[in-house]
Amino acid sequence: MDREDRTVYEGGQGEIIEKKSRFIATVKPVKTEEEALEFIESLKKRYWDATHNCFAYIIGGGTPLKRCSDDGEPSGTAGRPMLDVLEGESLSDVAVVVTRYFGGTLLGTGGLVRAYSGAVRAGLDASVLITRLRGIHLLIGTDYTGLGKIQYLLGQRGIKTLESRYTDAVELSVLVPDEEIEVLKQEITEATSGAAKLDEKEKCVFAMVDGEPVILEGK
Questions:
Q1: Can you list the positions of beta strands (E) in 64-191?
Q2: How many CB atoms lie within 10 A of CB 180?
Q3: Contact, 159 vs 190, CB < 8 A?
Q4: Helix, strand, or coil (residue 115)
Q5: pTM of the model
Q6: What is the pLDDT of residues 59-112, one digit of tens each?
Q7: Phi-psi region of 203 (alpha: psi -120 to 50; beta: other; left: phi over 0)
Q8: Does the pLDDT value for residue 170 go beyond 70?
Q9: Which of 55, 153, 163, 211 is deepest in the core (most CB within 10 A)?
């Protein structure tokens, strides 16, 4: 992945109706093409009686793998618009299947593009999207005198505490983006006159989920 990117933390499902046709979008986070293809096949089996099961997926950062399918819809009216929505949201490691049950009225090329795009947006609205960051899991040890100063510095940078331990001293566990770690360590050292202990526990990939820091991968 890049220094930071957006992905789906928890998939969801959304549905729209266009001229009695049902468009059901199912979104899922995936890490490999094999996972994406297994997901697509599972949806085709679940919705075996649907008119179409169109899909799009993007895997990896840098030069990502991108695939899409119209699954029998007129060329360029389903898969490509679905992929465009994922790209427009700067998402990676994600797959989406839009299942269509035909309602008896033709939508035309423009109508299909709008319907499939709208369904994907509905699916994403029902999902939990996150920005993944490369960073450091940092342990900060301090006495109670230095605690307020450290909490102020963390607050200034929008860094929330992953875990806190209070004994005769205090240990704070925080996740810090790569580009901020050296400056933050310097600020804490200066603010506590070198009294704070700073231990870089591990490199990691993390994200804020519902306002709380979560480690996604240890490195």
A1: 65-69, 94-101, 128-142, 161-166, 170-177
A2: 16
A3: no
A4: helix
A5: 0.87
A6: 987 789 999 999 999 999 999 999 999 999 999 999 999 999 999 888 999 999
A7: beta
A8: yes
A9: 55
